[in-house]
Design goal:
The protein is α/β, with parallel strands linked by helices and about 250 residues long. The chain is about 30% helix and about 10% strand. The strands form two sheets. It has a four-stranded parallel sheet, sandwiched between helices.
Length: about 250
């Protein structure tokens, strides 16, 4: 079909076919190569079928429809977030971007997004060697369009330092990032870069996700709510403003 297959990830590689995200090539592309497009293996077969039919296939449309979801094959649980609207937003974001949201923590969960380093879920996740990350990891992984290095989003890292050097960011105007927040709430200062996957609108939506997270008045679970089974009281006051729409990628 005219393409060149390479075993090594050289500087002239344009596409990476991903079966498993837990590989050195995937991690290198996530951090260092925003120019490389990550695609599902189904892209190759779809392209081949159109090529056999004759004519010129719409390569860009195929790439868009077979783009590797940002949270491909991840099973994600959360803890420490009392606001139910915010928790539902996290659930929708995970499910809409290739991941599977889990209300309860089980041993096959891959990631626990925690507000603080405490609680029953946190303890079990530590015992079971589940990756524990701050919420900034989710926001920035969606912004990048790939799974970022979890070690850079430790709960023990100051919020302003989380995600530093997680990936190469293209310069964009500061105005597109919205209002800056205080050092206690911000995850990263300075310009951000977005990986264009489907459209400019999608990129702006992912930036909106980050703005919502850092600007939202998200509170921590009270100790008697932070149980392993996540039995939360639904009738409590909701400090998080209800958003007009969820900035997640629709599949």
């Amino acid at each position: 079909m005219g393409a060149i297959h390479k075993l090594d990830l050289t500087s002239d590689v344009t596409h990476l076919i991903v079966g498993d995200a837990d590989t050195p090539k995937y991690k290198f592309v996530a951090k260092e190569r925003p120019d490389v497009k990550c695609l599902l293996p189904t892209w190759v077969e779809a392209l081949r079928e159109l090529w056999l039919e004759g004519g010129e296939p719409d390569v860009q449309a195929l790439e868009s429809s077979h783009t590797l979801p940002a949270l491909h094959k991840l099973r994600i649980c959360v803890t420490g977030f009392e606001d139910m609207a915010f928790r539902k937003k996290l659930e929708d974001l995970v499910n809409a971007n290739g991941g599977e949201y889990r209300a309860n923590l089980t041993k096959d969960v891959t990631h626990l997004i925690a507000k603080e380093a405490s609680g029953a879920k946190y303890k079990y996740a530590t015992d079971w060697n589940i990756k524990i990350v701050a919420v900034e990891w989710l926001a920035q992984s969606l912004e990048r369009g790939m799974i970022l290095d979890e070690k850079l989003y430790s709960l023990f890292t100051p919020p302003a330092e989380r995600g530093r050097d997680a990936w190469i960011r293209r310069s964009i105007s500061a105005s597109s990032l919205g209002k800056r927040v205080s050092d206690g709430d911000a995850v990263l200062s300075g310009p951000r870069k977005l990986r264009r996957v489907a459209s400019t609108k999608l990129s702006s939506q992912n930036v909106g996700l980050w703005t919502d997270i850092v600007n939202g008045d998200v509170q921590t679970d009270k100790p008697n709510h932070d149980q392993w089974s996540e039995q939360l009281v639904l009738g409590e006051a909701n400090p998080l403003p209800l958003l007009s729409k969820l900035p997640y990628r629709l599949k």
